[in-house]
Specification:
- The structure is a homodimer of 368-residue chains.
- Chain A has 368 residues and is an alpha/beta fold.
- Chain A folds into two domains: 4-266, Queuine tRNA-ribosyltransferase-like (TIM Barrel, Alpha-Beta Barrel), CATH 3.20.20.105; 267-368, no CATH class.
- The first copy, chain A, has helices at residues 45-50, 60-65, 69-74, 78-82, 94-100, 127-137, 155-175, 193-206, 222-233, 250-258, 268-274, 306-310, 313-321, 326-351, 355-365, and strands at residues 4-11, 14-21, 24-28, 30-33, 56-58, 88-90, 112-115, 122-125, 141-143, 182-187, 210-213, 241-244, 263-266, 277-280, 283-286.
- The first copy, chain A, has a six-stranded parallel β-sheet. Chain A has a three-stranded antiparallel β-sheet with strand order 1-2-3.
- In chain A, helix 8 (193-206) runs parallel beside helix 9 (222-233).
- Chain A binds chain B through residues 37-39, 41-45, 62, 66-67, 71, 74-76, 81-83, 293-294, 296, 306, 310-312, 314-315, 317-319, 321-322, 324-326, 328-330, and chain B through 37-39, 41-45, 62, 66-67, 71, 74-76, 81-83, 293-294, 296, 306, 310-312, 314-315, 317-319, 321-322, 324-326, 328-330.
Chain lengths: 368, 368
């Protein structure tokens, strides 16, 4: 079965819906934690369910290198390999290999040359290979192989890349061979309105099971990011899920939902955790700060996560300062729960047609 | 309330009993996982309960340095600080500071001079200070400050040290000031039969709430280890718990129980886990070994731990090879469960008066 998106209610452009998959149904908007190497760092699947995670993302490039897609296939697919029975989305590997490719000659019509980040082995990834690996990983949703265009590229580069990504999408679609898996197309087009339109319309014409917006997680230039979302999403069909790739800052999620996005992913919650940071409704805090040394309150008083129900800032700070990995684990639980709870609250607001005031409230508190 | 040992059944010298504490009762023999810095590395308290851990050990030296005993006291004691409501035993810090003291002049009648392992700060630990810290940590069981005599010390050194440890035990007992906490004495005496007897008899005369046998975890010389246990335990009263310090190898636990030991502790299960090793009934295995690459079976088919119920050797190997800390966490759960299950099986054997054949069966399988 292919995934099916069910649109239940709209509040202006914000959408409340459900995505039905072979591994269960989850409500949208939803934040997807990233489990790069077939695990969301430090956590077991039961903990992902406990934080309300409806779907997780895993990385094709990393699993291709370790343990290798054939091992995962022999294990019975990614769900069985990591003992996670909920929905899984795999990326295409494009984002990683483009950041490993050393110069533009490494990017050809056929695919991308790059060196393994583990041992420098020369590797070559093509749209067909990306799909073949994902077919073997047997995730619920596979992603098209695309070029994530560097921010602020020239019009000419962006146009050529966007056209090539369309050809790659077609090649991947033709090579696709897993009837239990869905395939999402990806809209690129850089920061150029006409190229976003072109990319979105041509991608939709090919007919995918869902659509992603790529190349928008570019950092501080929020107005550019938000414009790129607008310039892409207006051409996407209402009856398919929309996934904004690599976006995990709370305010960006809030904006994305406002524009009609259904799914988000980002390594931010686990990466922040490893560096001792926690999300709160008022912004991020660093638990290593001396001011938390005798703070015997939870990270957030009203948070329902395992960490906040059991541990204090002083204890988490102690673990971090002592370099005990449990500290990162406890912060990962909280940070993932924070983003998922944010999408839960957004869903409630959409259902109640109060998304605008909800958004305003989040903005009024959240700083940084 | 002080801890109370209840002897329920004996099979030759092996004892099945219960230790009643202010934080609940646990059955003995029992293996205690080590939570050095107020956490058993990578695990939360719920996981310790799930593996059947009746009591955990925490390290006074480490908590003295980080976060400091006053922070723990302000948090409401160690149980509240780490959100663990089961029994906790704290060591005296002696083992750590003796290994940090650079030469014998650093060890005086008053106490021990040494440098912090964190920043080299000069520190001085006395019997009174060790007890004061433990009183503040508010563990269920505090340990006397002793010198863990280096193996194969001369008779003269061992005699002097053993006598000083007795004076330190007296000083600690006099300084002790926490009516909700118990204090265990420690038998030293090195590898000399008469000094073990002397140390045991004099320690028992002082009247502690339980007794430990120290200085026996000396490595490969098993015959010496086992003789030191015999030479100590025969002088200990039947109505108090007996704790064999630092012992965690499966066969040593089996021997200790045979001789009448009730409690064991060791960092081995978590340390082995961090290096990719797992206990099995047939000996230790290293999961990084290539032969486990496609082994889609659990660490042990009949193990009831969370790890074995959910994950395969191939998956754990993948996590370890990819340096994902979840691998160490999953192995820690299994390794701790393995030792606690070993003591569970030993308890059953004692109850059934079949300890001798149980011991033989363990020996016939376990290699290394």
């Amino acid at each position: 079965m292919k995934v099916e998106y069910e649109l239940i209610h709209k509040d202006n452009n914000a959408r409340y819906g459900k995505l039905h998959t072979n591994h269960g149904t989850f409500e949208t908007p939803m934040f997807m934690p990233v489990g790069t190497l077939a695990n969301v760092k430090t956590l077991v699947p039961d903990e992902l369910k406990e934080v309300g995670s409806g779907i997780i993302l895993s990385n094709t490039y990393h699993l291709w290198l370790r343990p290798g897609e054939d091992i995962v296939k022999k294990a019975g697919g990614l769900h069985k390999f990591m003992d996670y029975d909920g929905p899984i989305l795999t990326d295409s590997g494009g984002f990683q290999v483009f950041s490993l490719a050393k110069n533009k000659n490494d990017i050809t019509e056929e695919g991308v040359k790059f060196k393994s980040h583990i041992d420098g082995t020369k590797l070559f990834l093509t749209p067909e290979k990306s799909i073949e690996i994902q077919n073997k990983l047997d995730s619920d949703i596979a992603m098209s192989f695309d070029e994530c265009i560097p921010p602020f590229s020239t019009y000419e580069y962006t146009k050529n890349s966007t056209e090539r990504t369309l050809r790659w999408a077609k090649r991947g679609k033709d090579a696709f061979n897993n009837e239990n898996q869905s395939l999402f197309g990806i809209v690129q087009g850089g920061a150029f309105e006409d190229l976003r339109k072109y990319s979105a319309e041509e991608t939709v014409k090919m007919g995918f099971d869902g659509y992603a917006i790529g190349g928008v997680a570019i950092g501080e230039e929020k107005d550019v990011t938000y414009r790129m979302i607008d310039d892409s999403i207006r051409y996407l069909p209402e009856d398919k899920a929309r996934y904004l790739m690599g976006v995990g800052e709370p305010l960006d999620i809030i904006e994305g939902i406002d524009k009609g996005v259904d799914m988000f992913d980002c390594v931010l919650p686990t990466r922040l955790a490893r560096h001792g940071n926690a999300f709160t409704a008022y912004g991020k805090i660093n638990l290593k700060n001396l001011k938390f040394k005798e703070d015997f309150t939870p990270l957030e008083d009203d948070c329902d996560c395992y960490t906040c129900k059991h541990f204090t800032k002083a204890y988490i700070r102690h673990l971090l300062v002592s370099k005990e990995s449990l500290g990162g684990r406890l912060l990962s639980i909280h940070n993932i729960r924070f983003l998922i709870r944010l999408t839960e609250k957004a869903r409630d607001a959409i259902k109640n047609d109060t998304y605008a005031s909800f958004k305003e409230e989040i903005y009024s508190k959240y700083k940084n």
